[in-house]
Backbone:
């Protein structure tokens, strides 16, 4: 498929089917029959919509993102439905859009809202190594997901309103590299419990049992974005080294035909495993952006484009209403204690529902698409 205008129309259709309290891409809320709250799922999509306007010049994408943010952010910066006492790193992610809106409009409420999210991070409990807990209900736990949810916002806050000290972000990522990376596989485990008390944690390493593609994708996207945010210097160089090492490992796990990656990436072809859209799109985006930023060889851009094309060939379907994007794992996590089904096992990861048009797949697909468009313009 080369008619990219159909992807533009697909994204616009999703916007047209959405309103701030019911977004067409937030399938978890739709399935629960609940209104949308301030959440990371919509945050991912709003980031992608802002990028769509940036690359296409079509203000309809950014206008909807602004509409959603304005629904939740009061004039004094209060964020409706935000519950900072839950210390949920996921809730930080949607705040990334605040910086672009503040720059665009100068409206002080966006800065005040960013301050409130930063206050949550300042109060966030940490492991003894200094990493943010993923949530209050997950004491002493670090998830790869949380790096994406918190650290790009943190770095953007430092860049826009702070003192230029990115050491906390860099140190937390270095801890993840030291504690959660498998030297043998070159991959990172989904979670780490510094206390070794979680039922899913290895009693020696504290890590979960397996590698989950989307968690690796969150981590890769966070690194790609941070490389863009941080100024040149030692801190950025340290992140580039970690980013490059991960991308060099991941490329060996790409399916040789489709270029996609598997739900449990080191177990290709095992019964129940499948080529998964969201994590594959994240890897495509990270590789394309890393090459554009000049921190990865151009061969990674070609691999990213192959992965993107593989997703389109495998999971992008045409219907009377337009396009639909399938192959998306709806959700996966570790615990808590009262949910022992989420144990980090292979059987668990391949048991979660596979859906269409959920933002956890659509947003990174759109982000990868914006990088494809940038690449085509540059070629």
Residues:
């Amino acid at each position: 498929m080369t008619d990219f205008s159909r992807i533009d129309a697909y994204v616009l259709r999703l916007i047209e089917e959405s309103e701030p309290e019911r977004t067409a891409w937030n399938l978890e809320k739709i399935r629960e029959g609940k209104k949308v709250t301030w959440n990371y799922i919509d945050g991912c999509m709003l980031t992608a919509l802002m990028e769509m306007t940036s690359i296409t010049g079509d203000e309809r994408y950014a206008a909807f993102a602004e509409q959603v943010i304005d629904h939740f952010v009061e004039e004094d910066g209060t964020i409706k439905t935000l519950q900072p006492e839950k210390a949920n790193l996921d809730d930080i992610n949607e705040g990334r859009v605040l910086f672009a809106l503040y720059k665009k409009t100068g409206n002080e409420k966006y800065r005040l809202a960013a301050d409130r999210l930063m206050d949550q991070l300042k109060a966030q409990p940490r492991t003894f190594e200094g990493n943010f807990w993923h949530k209050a209900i997950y004491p002493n736990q670090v998830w790869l997901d949380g790096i994406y949810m918190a650290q790009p916002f943190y770095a953007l806050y430092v860049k826009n309103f702070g003192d230029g000290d990115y050491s906390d972000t860099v140190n937390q990522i270095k801890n993840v590299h030291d504690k959660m990376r498998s030297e043998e596989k070159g991959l990172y485990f989904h979670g780490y419990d510094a206390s070794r008390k979680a039922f899913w944690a290895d009693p020696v390493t504290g890590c979960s049992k397996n590698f989950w593609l989307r968690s690796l994708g969150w981590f890769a996207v966070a690194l790609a974005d941070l490389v863009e945010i941080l100024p040149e210097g030692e801190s950025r160089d340290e992140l580039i080294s970690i980013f490059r090492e991960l991308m060099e490992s991941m490329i060996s796990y790409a399916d040789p035909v489709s270029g996609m990656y598997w739900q449990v990436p080191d177990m290709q072809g095992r019964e129940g495993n499948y080529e998964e859209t969201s994590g594959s799109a994240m890897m495509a985006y990270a590789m394309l952006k890393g090459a554009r930023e000049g921190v990865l060889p151009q061969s990674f851009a070609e691999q990213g484009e192959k992965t993107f094309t593989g997703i389109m060939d495998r999971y992008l379907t045409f219907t009377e209403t337009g396009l639909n994007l399938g192959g998306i794992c709806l959700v996966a996590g570790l615990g808590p204690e009262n949910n022992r089904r989420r144990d980090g096992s292979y059987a668990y990861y391949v048991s979660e529902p596979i859906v269409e048009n959920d933002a956890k797949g659509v947003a990174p697909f759109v982000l990868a698409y914006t990088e494809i468009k940038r690449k085509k313009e540059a070629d």
In short: The CA atoms of residues 130 and 172 lie 7 Å apart. The first strand starts at residue 141 and ends at 143. The chain is about 55% helix and 5% strand.
